[in-house]
Amino acid sequence: MRPAIVILSAAALPVAMRIRAAVGGEIHGAVDRVSDVDVTFDSAAAHLRALFVAGRPIIGIMASGAMIRILAPLLADKTTEPAVLAIAEDGSAVVPLLGGHHGANDIARTIAAALGCPAAVTTAGDLRFGVALDAPPFGWRLENPENAKAVMAELLAGAWAWLEGEAAWLNASAIPLSDDGAVTLRVSEMRDPAPGPLELVYRPATLALGIGCERGAPAEEAIALAEAVLAEAGVSPLSLAAVVSIDLKADEAAVHAVANHFGVPARFYAAARLEAEAARLQSPSDIVFAETGCHGVAEGAALAAVGAAGRLLVGKRKAKRATAALAIAPVPIAAQTIGRDRGMLHVVGIGPGGAEWRSPEVSAMVAASTDLVGYSLYLDLLGSLAAGKRRHDFDLGAEEARVRHAMELAGEGRSVALVCSGDAGIYAMATLVFELLDKGGLSDSARRVAIAVSPGISALQGAAARAGAPLGHDFCTISLSDLLTPWADIQRRVRAAAEADFVIAFYNPVSRKRRTQLAFARDVLLQHRPAETPVVLATNLGRPGEHVRIVPLGELDIDEVDMLTVVVVGSSESRTVTTGDGRRWVYTPRGYSGKAGTGMAGEGMTGEGVADKLTSLVSPAAQQ
Asked: Which domain holds residue 570?
């Protein structure tokens, strides 16, 4: 996760910006003391605890004692605690407090180098031996971390270690090695006997599991076959680097189920790359070649992953609808360097654009993306979240080209964020994603990408919140743009919504060339609700220049509305109320006036009862 750099005053901002440039992340600042930050908070203690519980690395530019007292009640298991660091406000000291072996020590050294100050690393193993035995480097896994404390204590007391197997990072450390050492550090892919109390077992990620299967093969069948292959080879699943297959199977659920089962990535190869391994296959198949363009999927993918110096451990094994093969490389495999990922498309709504109205899920999706696609203004609004990512800027318009570009990028194996303002699924790009999948015209790889849609605060919600609670009862949204919807259909919807007495949010109310639609809607609504019905005009919500005003429906002046305005028209039941500070608010009571004091949901009316009542309000013509 990206670190959260937490500051309590503007004086700490320059140091925070230098830290962000060195390690990335977001700057979080106290709302009443700091501006120009990525995220604001009211309570430092509550915010720090929430970050800690979420597992987010925390870099606090504040007193270490304050951070300790705030987080102390949450300390329970050091194996799950995120990195926590305290930085002096003047940048003179860096102290990793927690999670030294979960990145805190490495982060501390990076920050110290950037600030030109010492890193107060106090972890005994790091200081004495230059290595953390319970946190092996990338490409290695420790099978029995519960033994690490006893082993480290023995080494710190002066014991020697016996290294069984090859591990360059252990050889390069300052751990004293001897053939008769009291401590054993074993390096092996094989399922060996259970380790002793002074023994640590390290699993190098040298294995690649190739999977082939029919379309729609059962996940449980593929998993059982994979387990059987590993058992036949006598190896530990902790040495698996990846599950690999042909790119035709990038969206195959069974392949991803196997990868998830073992907690490793799934990677994919083009048929031509797998065919390059034909000479090394144990079980080449002309039938497979006719269907896929290569003579072996499971064996070919496994061999491609381990490279020319690797070899098959277990040749192709078959289940009813799946095949599997296992290969081994001489050194750990960096899974990110083999094949390609399935590709991920995050369709995100960033709300009005400010960090305070952007959901944590959206921020996490953007942070996890390699590429950002969107209207230039929306990408700019991401601020530091966009740093270090490939931007693909588009002007307004050509929405289909924008979405197609994002999907094709994801089809190349990238992680892409398609960035929308407001909510991605409300008059925005999420619809186009599925429309393109439905009507075709995408490459095969683009059609196989994983898709996740995350909601954002819509203009409708923002306008309602700023004005009070106009959406307290049934409401609808209508776009007045006739670029994609025939004007006759828009007219019919306006009349139906007016007669049904919905609160209505009008999107795209006007444009430079289109000034008559909102006037039409106003005139129709005046036939069904009082002239004093409150109308909310909300412009530039959540951005500089935000302006929200409330006017009576009968006095709605079209010239007061522009392209950046959302128009929310109350129902006949909507009211205004003025608070003691003179501010006017709009609200719509939860119940109809005919059921005074009764909330529809709160008084036992079922969803069907509500639907029946709404249906009775709509004319037969509108119901058709």
From this structure: 460-620
